[in-house]
Amino acid sequence: MAPKKSYSLETELVLAKSNDQHNASVPPLYQSATFKQPSLSNMGEYDYTRSGNPTRTHLQNHIAKIMKAKQAFAVSSGMGCLDVITRLLNPGDEVIAGDDLYGGTQRLLTYLNKKGDLIVHHYDTTNTELIKSKISKSTKMIFLESPTNPLIKVVDVKSIAEYAHQVNPDVIVVFDNTMMSPVLMTPLDLGVDIHYESATKYLNGHHDIMAGVLATRSTELAERLYYVINSTGCGLSPFDCWLLSRGLKTLAVRVERQQDNCIKVAKFLENVGFKVRYPGLKSHPQYELHNSMCSGYGAVLSFETGSIKLSEKIVESTDIFGIAVSFGCVNSLISMPCKMSHASIDAKTREEREFPEDLIRLCIGIENVDDLIDDLTKALLKSGAVRVNDKDELFNAVPIQPKL
Ligand SMILES: *Cc1c(COP(=O)(O)O)cnc(C)c1O
Known about the structure:
The chain has about 400 residues and is of the alpha/beta class.
């Protein structure tokens, strides 16, 4: 029997076939900037690592497969992806972007808007009808994220992408899938043109490199993306490509474990009485919509305590949860977005977008979940957020109403 063309994702992640000349079990690292030409007239497959490197090619072919794309590219960071994508646009082009995008995305789009390179309109992309009414023939690109981070708002990606292509067949719908990863969502199946994500997060999973990946089914877009990547020199370095290939192998098991842990932590915090934002909770207003697009919920949640001071105390009282930005790592992290990852969004804009200043974000790792809940219990008691002493009782506790 001929081998199957493709297997399930878990199998594909570890299979990653390469055509190494020595049949090395792990595709080798080509830590070389240049490649000798076979002759003066024959350039060979590779000549210069900015343009191409076998370690990067191996990674990119692997990524294309797991993202269900025709072609994929690996660049130096998630923001590097966005830089490459925005360079596809012409001066003065109009773009539509969500109003709750990643802080760094917001910063780059604001910069390009201020310089007059692009006209950027921000809207609440959870309001599908509003977005549809704003899409016109002059809309050249649409930037979407779902669920957003850390407000965990869900966007109807399929409806928006379908409608946008009806209005303007040339529009490029761009989707940042960092929050879900290809294990839980394949946005190209929902009609987006470019799927990108920060590989610094789940794809690599160990917080030891920065990387970004882009994927598309359009040969024309792939050519244009490659042109920019080769011209600007942001292709991922061979060593980082090698590390990312290694990290990818455990993506499915990591995400599965992180998500299992996160569901338990979310239920715990909800039972304590906090307002928890997590798409895996039935209380999430867009639970059904999220389920229609994704096969899971990820491992990032946020919750409000009612007081900035109290939130600060909780964040500073954990042991296992490290105070750090980012997510998708094997370790659990805790942060206050307004003071950390989203501090680059000015306070007025945050207020307009109903961004709670007391919001705590948890990014759940692969630790034992009982240890994680014990750590949170200790932090809630130490900070004075709750008053009972026993974890089981805490499930039925009412949080102390903080004095603002
Ligand atoms: C982290 C992140 C990025 C940026 O990626 P870097 O690798 O840090 O440059 C973009 N989008 C989202 C949703 C992210 O979480």
